[in-house]
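Exercise: predict the structure of this protein bound to zinc ion.
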Amino acid sequence: MVLLAPEAHGWGVPVRDAREGWSAEWRMANGNCHYSLLAIRYEEFRMKTVAAVLYEMGKPSPYRVSQPLVIEEVELEGPGPGQVLVEVTAAGICHSDLSVVDGSRPRPVPMVLGHEAAGIVREVGPGVQDLKPGDHVVFSFVPACGRCIPCATGRPALCENGNRANAAGTLLDGSVRFRDAQGRPLHHHLGVSAFSRYTVAAQESLVRIDPSVPFEKAALFGCALLTGLGAVVNTARVEPGTSVAVFGLGGVGLSVVMGARLAGAWPIVAVDVVETKLDLARQVGATHAVHARRDDPVQAVRDVTGGGAHYVFEAVGSEQVLQQAYQATRRGGTTVTIGLPHPSRMFSVPAVTIVGEERTIRGSYMGSSVPRRDIPRWLALYQAGLLPADVLLSRTIALSDVNEAMDALATGEVARQVIVGA
Ligand SMILES: [Zn+2]
Ligand SMILES: [Zn+2]
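Solution:
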């Protein structure tokens, strides 16, 4: 790992690996002592890392041909105040990454993608108090500021400052730490940018975890499990003995099934168009599986649940599937939508049913989670053998396989692919 000198200031070249830290290792090579060491700003320190950069949204699939993600060496500035340098040891590929690639979730480009990950803290910037080098962490994809009204009222997923930074493609303080070979700034994906061997994140984007959890499993707790379990437990508050249906069995939908099982729901009806995913759903707690191309999923859910499920979860990101989920919800029931359709898509329902049938439609972003509370508690259940999270991990891949992995995700043939050893 090569560190670049802040040559504009005439300071010497650092000599050791970034893993061991850089702040103590700088020395004056030219003997010109009229600057104080304290005057060196952390922002002036840079290292090189390899990252997957999206320069253009909406390239055609197959992505193994169009190569929307460019694997290249980029520069990474060291952690500023309140920021942390993390070596990314595992990064999951989530549908929200694909949604940026295909343009259905527009974000500023160029951008270093990846938002579901685990890693090791290598360096902390000034003012970071709760993390230290060597800590194992899971990334949280909304950097909750802790000061805005949503944060102050226990809803950090809706943090105003964190979501503003995410929309702008910056870290929480508005800074951007990556640059390409031409020196152009690269945006951050949800404050994480995990498709890079090293990344810098706000301390608010990180949750320390038990170091005994394998990284490729821990990463899944940053998005798939946090979102799916949270939708059941935090958003819907499913009670024992109520019925649940889940439309869409990717990493999030399968996590909803696990959450429904944990909550004591029965029956649990899983719906998808891929047979292997229906099998996975049965493995993690679904009592019934419905192939949505072979059977009418609305009628099937109604039949199994005696008129519609108490709670129906939509985890596809399609307004048509959301329509089906609404129709499969019973009178007095709750439809929870987790997927993220394109901003232009509209959703309509017979208005009278909301009143006449006392229906509830709830949105669930990041599982309405409090990551510092929820990531450790779900990990504890996993370690106790009560959460079959291993099922989510379809395969591990290398960073260089990321475009092919997007193709596999787009066809729906996998739950989660995790990049290791980027
Ligand atoms: Zn995700
Ligand atoms: Zn906030």
